[in-house]
Amino acid sequence: MIIGSNTKINVFIDMVNTEVLSEKIKYLIITEAGKDFNIISASIDDVIYFDFNNNTIKSYYVDIRFDYLGSINPNVRYFGEDLRKMSDKVRDIVGRYVLNSKGKIVSGGENVTIGDGVIFSFNYIVHESQEFAISFKVTIISED
After folding, report:
1. pLDDT tens digits for 59-72?
2. Across all residues in the chain, what is the average pLDDT?
3. Where do runs of H (alpha helix) occur along the chain?
4. pLDDT (0 to 100) of residue 8
5. 67, 69, 71, 47: which is closest to 57 by C-alpha?
6. C-alpha distances in angstroms, 99 versus 68, 95, 110?
7. Other Cβ atoms closer than 10 A to 56
8. Can you tell me whether residue 49 is helix, strand or coil?
9. How much is the pLDDT for 143?
10. Does the structure show a pLDDT above 70 at 54?
11. Most buried of 15, 21, 44, 82 (most Cβ within 10 A)?
12. Is the pLDDT of residue 31 over 70?
């Protein structure tokens, strides 16, 4: 196919450099995690935009893989409750630094909602290993 000099080629460029932002978010999450979490990786994924020009972010996902150093009771009766508490702690950490609609990292999250965590993998061996991979959807509810 030959393209003439007057032919326009539409190229969609992701305005948010997710690799750079992922490294920054990972650093901030590690600093905020405290003694209960050993962060292995953190990344920003699946950025959705309000418009076709990729200028205004609507939502994105934060994926985190970590070793949980807190306690999880192996008793079936308490296991689910302890997982929920752990997930809530991670969600609070994610909420301390979020992207605004222009792709900049900001402190706090008054203009975002953070969904419940979805644990998509875990390696749990009683009293040995508690490695989890969890994802949170962050939705921007108002533009800056």
Report:
1. 999 999 999 988 88
2. 83
3. 18-33, 76-96
4. 44
5. 47
6. 25, 10, 11
7. 16
8. strand
9. 61
10. no
11. 44
12. yes
Other CB atoms within a 10 A radius of the CB of residue 64 amount to: 23
Is 5 part of any domain?
Answer: no
Three-class DSSP category at 64: strand
Query: CB neighbours (10 Å) of residue 134?
Result: 23
**Is residue 97 within 8 Å of residue 77, measured between CB atoms?**
no
| Domain-embedded: residue 52 | yes
pLDDT tens, position by position, 72-109: 888 878 888 988 999 999 999 999 999 888 888 888 76
Beta carbons of 121 and 34 less than 8 angstroms apart: no
Question: Containing domain of residue 59, as a range?
Answer: 18-140
Q: Tell me the pLDDT band of 15, cut-offs 50, 70 and 90.
A: low
Helix, coil or strand: residue 35 = helix
Q: Which of 88, 89, 84 is nearest to 73 (CA)?
A: 84
User: Domain for residue 43, yes or no?
Assistant: yes
- 38 close to 58: Cβ distance less than 8 angstroms: no
Q: What is the gyration radius of the CA atoms in the chain, in angstroms?
A: 19
CATH of the domain at 80: 3.30.70
Q: Establish if 3 belongs to a structural domain.
A: no
